[in-house]
User: Fold FAD-binding domain-containing protein from Nocardia aurantia.
Amino acid sequence: MGADVLISGAGVAGSTLAYWLSRHGYRVTVVERATGQRSSGNPVDVKGGAVDVAERMGVMPTLRAAGSRTSRLVFTDDGGRVRSSVRMRSFQGSAGDREVEVSRATLASTLLAAAAEAAEIRWDDSVTALTPTASGVDVTFARGEAAHFDLVVGADGVHSATRRLAFGPESEFTRNLGMYVATLPVERAFGEPDEVVMYNLPGAALSVHPGVGQPVAAFMFRHAPVPDLDYRDIERQRAMISAVYGGRLGVFRPYLDAVRVAEDVYFDAVTRVMLPHWSSGRITLVGDAASSLSLFGDGSTLAICGAYTLAEELGATPGDIAGALARYERRHRRLVRPRQRGFRSAGMLLAPKTRTGIALRDNAVRVLSR
Ligand SMILES: Cc1cc2nc3c(=O)[nH]c(=O)nc-3n(C[C@H](O)[C@H](O)[C@H](O)COP(=O)(O)OP(=O)(O)OC[C@H]3O[C@@H](n4cnc5c(N)ncnc54)[C@H](O)[C@@H]3O)c2cc1C
Assistant:
């Protein structure tokens, strides 16, 4: 039997990694802070090489069945009248029609179901201290008993606890890109069932996605970084959103009313995660914990590809963990680097800063869609 690996986080990267490491003969424990799978309906893509990985895991039929049926992104004015539109196909990657868009929760739970056949999953717990030793890492947990592992992998997202414990404070490796995003499930979609509808104010956007079963509204707005913003402070978040959108949403006003009463609002700064090295001894990072551009960087696709590459390298040289970690980083950084430069163009497309910028974007979309 191979070495003992602890993965912190049962999200997209952690679940993919657990599956593949188990297949390579490692004993895998996954520790997840949540008490069970979450309900987040945010739609995310499985594109490019991640489709091949998901196919090899046998989960593509499930993902396809749970996939959204959106085919157009429509930009409207405040009366809901169409200004321009583009076919979703234009955003397809190298896997073309095999690519799918599913809710983040469905993606994570489907990948985890595949992993759970071989890995041990511990819910409602998290790492509290990581002490490197000559042969691995001594780990203490908030709830479970302390244990020794040959390798610890932080797959615990943008605000990774593993990264904080092993590499240093979050502020050293993250940059608030001057934009915030809030998403929430809503009662009603806008437009046709296959349309994602987006309305722009200068520097801000509201999109309504039909989702699968439950539509999702997303507020994305440029805003100077707010130091010490408490992400559990829902009243403060509501106030920020109201200050940007209040009185300016026209027919989209009911979505702002929904924010004022919703309990299930996801809110975060659009954050870039960048580290000079992803590994420190026998502790390494994967997914958003290692590199992230929030909603702008094909994060779920990169999380799946990164986890697969890490498992592949560890599987290739089980006796040389350090060498495997170095090769994983070299290979996966090649995929990550160009995505991390993509924020500016994604921001220009989704949230132009001025009315002129919005008009130029709409014109460009009209020309492109021809
Ligand atoms: C609003 C929004 C829209 C997005 N849209 C897209 C998109 O269209 N396309 C796309 O490719 N990507 C998109 N993304 C990004 C994508 O969701 C992430 O990049 C992807 O989920 C990263 O996977 P991950 O496994 O690294 O992190 P996550 O999926 O975030 O998983 C991290 C896991 O770690 C757990 N965790 C956190 N802290 C701890 C702890 N201390 N101990 C134990 N467990 C912990 C969490 O509960 C979670 O289960 C979007 C993101 C957001 C927020």
